[in-house]
Amino acid sequence: MRARLLLAVLALGLGLAGCAAPQNQEAIAADDPLEPMNRLFFDFNQKLDRHAALPAATFYTSTMPGPVRSGLHNFLGNLSGPVGVANNLLEARFVNAGAEAARFIINTTVGAAGIFDVATDWGLPDRSRDFGETLGVYGLDQGPYLVLPFRGPTALRDLAGNYVDGFFSPLYYIHLEFAGKQYVGLLKSTIGSIDNRANNIVTYRDIERNSVDFYATMRDYYRQRRARQVEDFPVQTAALPDF
To answer: What predicted TM-score, i.e. pTM, was given to this entire model?
Structure first.
């Protein structure tokens, strides 16, 4: 089901990208041939954010102690450990792949399933990579920009990469019934979204306040961040929102 949905989205994006006329030169430069549709979904996501995601994130930060939020954030990040190992190997970054494997083992065991980031304290900082970045390393452009309902900004390359990363995640191999797997994935996605939004309340607010066109600004930020991640410049991406 998930594969068919992804193929449908990719086919729609590629088809419309080939035949739809961008609305302006800025959209052409940003490789955003689906700008009218993207803006529609962007507005939908903004309304959803104002009425659901932001209140949930605000409640989460005001009621959960800092150590609890930090532990949950670390736990979610640790689940991506095998994804980072796989993509570092695919990029022939063997030292980083070994460091990521060590991080995952240490944090999963000594760090109590990743709740505590012991590995960073032991000199093993996060060096995670995703398949979208791996494709970028091998020269594949981001492709047409996309905004998806309930998801937010992405690009054709990163959308496909996210699907492939799902097979590297330990959650994919949880031996539950199909419905059970769906619930686990939905729970992780929901908690991850609240965690991400809670960590970026001020950042998003400041970007929106200082933007003449919030949609275009967020599109540019996404493009910049992903380009710099492919080049592996973590310091330069630190000030950009964590999409």
So the answer is: 0.83
